[in-house]
Write a structure and sequence with these properties.
alpha+beta
């Protein structure tokens, strides 16, 4: 940082404050993906590099397996990385590959081992790291990339200047550079950049969101957005190209060509869905400062009887996009308990009980209020997070109650003493029901 400023300014008194701000700023990593167009020679070199890295990965995996089976010794990343010069002497062709690319290949294997043992420790289903077959090793990484792309090209060490489509400018400091190839044979470069995230803003506008299969977003303000269902719309065409693939002879050029056609159709559906979800997440974060969503059991929903529709809507992907984009924009996305959001009346808090999915509107048997099923759930979701300040007056609390239709029964209790709120909920916490009339312990940070 200091090298940016002249010497006279570098040692001035105010520079201390700049250093304090710089080191205390919130850092975040953001990825920028661009399409690249290597020529025939560059593409052959990239394919050869991928094949050599795949061979190195498989050899390193075999070394770990044999060492443990024969001697009971665990070989780690450090032992294998130190032996790379000896491997290069035995295989001189590896000298044509950047040294850090080879090191990252070994580190990738080490990450696979670490993930395997972490899953075992958690008790999850753990798959042992496996040998990478043909067309299954599709990326290489420069972990300490120093350059930056120009308007027309990007320099890749040991490859050369490759034509690039720079559709947007890079932000921050480039940390890593990954070159990858997709199933259709197209090439991309991904830059991981360190940026300074914006400070969290004060919540001026909040909204609760109920996500569903028919309407991907239903807000507590009554807005509904239909699910586009791109996968359902492409089913007929996908069925035809998959039937064409099944008729082709195995290990033939015709089958490879048909497989690419299937991959291109899947990629089109994925791009349509990603484009829609990115634009939806950006529009929500531009309009609201705090977005409250349900902490859903995504794994259970993805394996239920509506799994196909759930994957098509991609609710989990939308939540992921909201969370990481909010971190960059200084907004907040909070998850709350989803239980009983559909059953509770948002006007009086009475719990009606379970309702079948076919019931879209219902009337509360206690207060006789008629509710839309999804809007009522969105209001209840927002009710489980209401940011309260200890300096708010009774009039401010009253205006807050009138602007947000409370009625969640015991889901929120506020005690006002001398025009002050005795129960304080920080922005990163979800309120719990009150157990006493004066004080309540705040819940754990989410």
């Amino acid at each position: 940082m200091d090298s940016v400023y002249p010497r006279a300014i570098r040692y001035s008194p105010w520079m201390f404050l700049v250093r304090v701000w710089y080191h205390n700023a919130v850092k975040a990593v953001k990825a920028f993906k661009y399409r690249i167009y290597p020529n025939k020679g560059q593409e052959q070199k990239l394919l050869w590099t991928l094949e050599q890295c795949r061979y190195l990965y498989n050899c390193a995996l075999e070394q770990r397996i044999r060492a443990y089976k024969s001697q009971g010794v665990s070989v780690g990343y450090h032992e294998q990385a130190v032996s790379l010069p000896e491997v290069k002497e035995a295989l001189p062709e590896l000298k044509q590959i950047h040294s850090q690319v080879l090191q990252d290949t070994l580190k990738r294997l080490d990450k696979a081992y670490s993930a395997f043992f972490a899953r075992l420790k958690r008790g999850d289903k753990a798959g042992f790291p496996r040998f990478q077959g043909r067309n299954r090793f599709d990326s290489i990484t420069y972990p300490q990339y120093q350059g930056k792309p120009t308007a027309r090209s990007v320099y890749l060490p040991k490859i050369g200047n490759v034509r690039i489509k720079l559709h947007r400018e890079l932000e921050g400091k480039v940390k890593t550079c990954t070159v990858k190839r997709d199933r259709c044979g197209d090439w991309y470069v991904v830059f991981s950049c360190e940026i300074t995230a914006q400070a969290v803003t004060q919540p001026a506008k909040q909204v609760g969101i109920d996500a569903g299969l028919k309407h991907i977003v239903v807000t507590s303000e009554g807005k509904k957005l239909d699910s586009p269902k791109y996968s359902r719309k492409a089913e007929a065409r996908l069925r035809r190209v998959q039937q064409k693939l099944a008729r082709r002879e195995r290990a033939s050029k015709a089958r490879e060509k048909a497989g690419i056609a299937v991959a291109k159709l899947h990629r089109k559906v994925q791009r349509q869905r990603d484009d829609f979800l990115h634009k939806l997440a950006v529009s929500l974060l531009r309009e609201y400062d705090v977005i409250v969503i349900e902490d859903l059991n995504l794994k259970g929903l993805a394996s239920g009887f509506l799994a196909k529709s759930f994957h098509d809507v991609a609710i989990g992907k939308l939540q992921q996009l909201l969370e990481y984009k909010a971190g960059y924009a200084g907004k907040q996305v909070l998850k709350v308990d989803p239980r009983y959001t559909t059953q509770d009346c948002s006007s009086c808090g009475y719990r009606e009980g379970k309702k079948p999915l076919s019931v879209r509107t219902w009337t509360c048997s206690k207060c006789k209020a008629t509710h839309d099923r999804d809007i009522n759930a969105a209001i209840n979701i927002l009710a489980r997070f209401v940011p309260l300040s200890a300096d708010m007056s009774q009039e401010a609390v009253g205006s807050l109650r009138s602007s947000i239709p409370l009625g969640w029964g015991s889901s929120l209790s506020m005690v006002i003493t001398d025009h002050k709120i005795a129960i304080k909920y920080p922005l990163c916490q979800t309120p719990k029901p009150s157990t006493t009339s004066t004080t309540t312990k705040s819940s754990k940070p989410c």
